[in-house]
Amino acid sequence: MRLFLLTSLTMCAFAANSILNRLAIDSGASDPAGFAVVRVLSGALVLAALVAMRGGTIPVFSRRRIAGAGSLLLYMIGFSVAYLTLDAGLGALILFGVVQITMFAIGALTGSVPMMRQLLGAGVALGGLVFVLWPAGPVQVDPLGASMMTAAGIGWAIYSISGRSEPDALSGTAANFIVALPFTALALFLMGSDWHMTTLGYVLAALSGGVTSGLGYALWYRVVPQLSPAVAAIVQLSVPVIAIAAGIILLSEFANLRLLLGASFVLGGIALAVTRRRGD
Predict the structure, then answer these.
(1) Signal peptide position in this chain (predicted)?
(2) In the predicted model, is pLDDT for residue 280 greater than 80?
(3) For residue 237, what is the DSSP state?
């Protein structure tokens, strides 16, 4: 039960990231690049302060930073650039689809082969997500945007897998944010991104970085070693559904039958994949 609650809290943090990002960028309070940089900076500051308060050290020069910070960098840049040209729903589908495939593949290569029940559950949940998020009308996929979101999905999958070997979730996450920060800023602005941030944009980016990203990612690094790669991939399919539900409650967005049916398939598929049965 404790693992279930911690995992659920982590997924809610990830969904809150989506809400904060949408509030900042859709309202014009922030551009994607500025939001990403302030987000990583805030996460680094909050996590470093928490590590210092408990008298710990931050392993910035550990070899784990190659996978941890490198994959976080790939995710942040890919995610920020992709949403300049991709529909939000289609972007989420590409991201979570790539995360599923990558984490399943890495798990299989490292000896954690998914069970048939997990594969079936993942298929049902992903199908429900497609039903909910597929854009209405003609679909035009920008090749650059799709490529960048694919890179973001691979980055997040590697980031999640690398957390399985992180000895200290908090200090490891702090080190990842600190190392990724200058490279994220440099890469985004070399790509020609403009800096446009209002006071509201800074506040939303700081909340996203310091709370829902920094603390959420640290919690994820604490939880993910207790989950198989397949289960860790599948439970993340709940994030868009939680974000949509939060949008309905907090942003007065509209709920329809399509949303309810799709969400039911997502949650049912996750339940099928993660529920243990005798003999498992």
Answers:
(1) 1-15
(2) no
(3) T
267 or 247, which is more confident: 267
**Mean local confidence (pLDDT), 207-211:** 92
The 10 Å Cβ neighbour count of residue 202 is 17
Residue 138: predicted pLDDT:
66
**CB neighbours of residue 97 within 10 Å:** 17
Q: Which two tokens stand for residue 179?
A: 């190392």
Six-digit token string for 229: 């790669």
Rounded to 10°, the helix 2-26/214-223 angle is 150
Helices 88-109 and 143-162: crossing angle, nearest 10°? 40
**Do residues 234 and 273 lie in contact, with contact meaning Cβ atoms separated by under 8 Å?**
yes
Res. 246 pLDDT band, cuts 50 70 90? confident
Whole-number pLDDT of residue 19 = 84
Cα dihedral sign, 159-161-163-165: negative
Helix and strand counts by DSSP (H, E) for the chain? 12, 0
The residues pairing with 30 across neighbouring beta strands, listed in sequence order, are 197
Q: Which residues of 55-91 are buried (b: 16+ CB within 10 A; e: fewer)?
A: eeebbeebebbebbbbbbbbbbbbbbbbbbbbbbbbb
With residues binned 3-state (H G I as helix, E B as strand, rest as coil), the percentages for the chain, rounded to 5, are: 80, 0, 20
For the chain, give the mean pLDDT: 86
> Taking residues 179-190, what's their average pLDDT?
86
Longest dimension (CA), the chain: 56
Inter-residue contact 32 to 193 (CB < 8 Å): yes
Q: What is the pTM of this model?
A: 0.87
What does the block give as tokens for 55?
Answer: 């008298």
Radius of gyration of the chain (CA): 18
